[in-house]
Amino acid sequence: MATEKRTSTARRSVTKAQEGAQRAQTLTHLPPQTRRALGEEVRKVRRGEAVSRKELEEKARRLGIVGRSRIGKQELWRAVARAG
Predict the structure, then answer these.
(1) By 3-state DSSP, what share of the chain in percent is helix, strand and coil, each rounded to 5?
(2) CA angle 38, 41, 44 (to 5 degrees)
(3) pLDDT tens per residue across span 6-36
(4) Is the pLDDT of residue 64 over 70?
């Protein structure tokens, strides 16, 4: 059985984790213009009009581009375009 001290410690830990998760909702803290741009990018990928990051990384892997996991999507897209 858990002691009262362990129970209260666990309760505090859960509460702290929930508060941290609430604060970590980074998309809600972005400016509306940025959120709209991100949403548009997602819609393009879903419609097949744009390439997802996963697809770009696969192409970069096949082309032998170094550092592909550390660069942003736009830079990765440019590197793939230059290489292939």
Answers:
(1) 75, 0, 25
(2) 155
(3) 888 888 888 888 787 777 777 777 888 988 9
(4) yes
Cα(62)–Cα(84) distance, integer angstroms: 10
Confidence band for 2, pLDDT divided at 50, 70 and 90: low
**Per-residue b or e along 44-81, where b marks 16 or more CB atoms closer than 10 Å to that residue's CB:** eeeeeebbeeeebbebbeeeebeebeebeeeebbebbe
pLDDT digits (tens, 9 = 90+) for 38-49: 889 888 888 888
CB 77 within 8 A of CB 65: no
Calculate the CA dihedral of residues 55, 58, 60, 66 and round it to 10 degrees.
130
